[in-house]
Amino acid sequence: MLVYPEIDPVAIQIGPLAVHWYGLMYVLAFLAAWLLLIWRGRSPYWDWSKDEISDFVFYAALGVVLGGRLGYVLFYNLPYYLAHPLEIFAVWQGGMSFHGGMLGVIVAGYLYTRKLGKSFLHSADFIVPVVPIGLGLGRLGNFINGELYGRVSSAPWAMVFPGGGPWPRHPSQLYELLLEGVLLFLLLWLYSARPRPRGAVFGLFLAGYGTFRFLVEFTREPDVQLGFIVGDFTMGQLLSLPMAILGLAIMAWAYKKHGAAQSRPA
Hints:
The structure is a single chain. By secondary structure, the protein is mainly alpha-helical. Helix content is 59%, strand content 3%. The chain has one domain (10-258). It is built from 9 helices and 2 strands. It has a two-stranded antiparallel ribbon. Helix 1 packs across helix 2 and helix 2 (50-76) runs antiparallel to helix 4. The chain is globular, with a radius of gyration of 19 Å. 40% of the residues are buried.
């Protein structure tokens, strides 16, 4: 059993102003994504200017926050928020859904690319390789907060989390950091380094995240207000499985429709 490294969730305290590590992870994620997209956008093939990328990152941030919060309300705790509607706006109390945030970004990205007259799938192929950076940093923030921990385990690397009782548990946040953050980033970056059919990179992102999240959920403690939804499956798995299937379908459609590769590296 490993000792959980209790880290103060507040990174910087200046009088009454407190900057939490979790919030800092969001800032770092969007900054890193912005810089990498600018680097990728230097290729005339992608045809994205620095100003367009900056605007997209701004709209994506809104999509993450609004979609993530709405997704959590609808998917994870709807009865509570129906009884306490004003609590929906109390985002500082926590409660965000990745799947909701993803839908928020997709909607924002679709509307913005349509405004620019760009192909949505071509733009998605350009953008999604940087998304795992945010996923990984977000899971690191969860680990620092000691939240979203795993199920009780006898694994030698299991940890006793402050809010998880006296039992050692899977550090499922770190599993997700490695799979959804590091490994998915490498897969997308290497896959998109060669010409691919339009939409295939986007499909790989959906399939990769959906698969990794589905697998990690077997080690993650279900949300206390939901428990297991169907048999031994959690809400996260019920949302991730269709995502993985959709991603594979988009990849199959992309290769069937375009045949020869239509996208190339930046």
